[in-house]
Amino acid sequence: MASRLIKEDRVARNERLKRAEESRKQLHTSLTTLGSQIDADLRDRITTIHQNAQSLETQTRTLKNRTAALSKTTRQWSGMAEGARSKLKEIGDIQNWAEMIEHELLVMEEAMNIVYDEERLMQEDTQPVPSTA
Questions:
Q1: pTM given for the model
Q2: Is the pLDDT of residue 125 over 90?
Q3: Per-residue pLDDT averaged across 112-127, rounded?
Q4: CA separation for the pair 106, 110 (Å, rounded)
Q5: Where are the transmembrane segments (predicted)?
Q6: Which helix (H) or strand (E) holds 9?
Q7: CA–CA separation, 36 vs 44, rounded Å?
Q8: CA 20 to 30 Å from 115, out of 33, 43, 79, 99?
Q9: Which residue has the higher pLDDT, 91 or 79?
Q10: Averaged pLDDT for residues 98-117
Q11: Residue 112 — φ and ψ, nearest 5°?
Q12: Domain range summary for the chain, segments of one domain joined by +
């Protein structure tokens, strides 16, 4: 009977060892699969991060170029506005000059009318009055 108990114990121990080995293999396989999945997920994320970084660099360059172009256009428009302001000032100066000349001509005309009227009055005073006989 003792030999039978020893045999059963060996069989039970072998069964336990076999199950433990299978459990270790399953654990190893699960850990390997889990590691591969995590590794694949991390690689996908890293790839996405690098692609986004490249996209950001491209967008940054584009933004810098467009900002430089906008700055150039702004300077051009500013120059055009300054030129237009200068021309408008010149037009205003010319208009002011023309108004001053017109005013001076009106004053001269009025002075000439006064002189003309005074000369006519003087001539009327110096002319003999025709007699009505």
A1: 0.44
A2: no
A3: 87
A4: 6
A5: none
A6: helix 2-126
A7: 12
A8: 99
A9: 79
A10: 94
A11: -65, -40
A12: 1-85
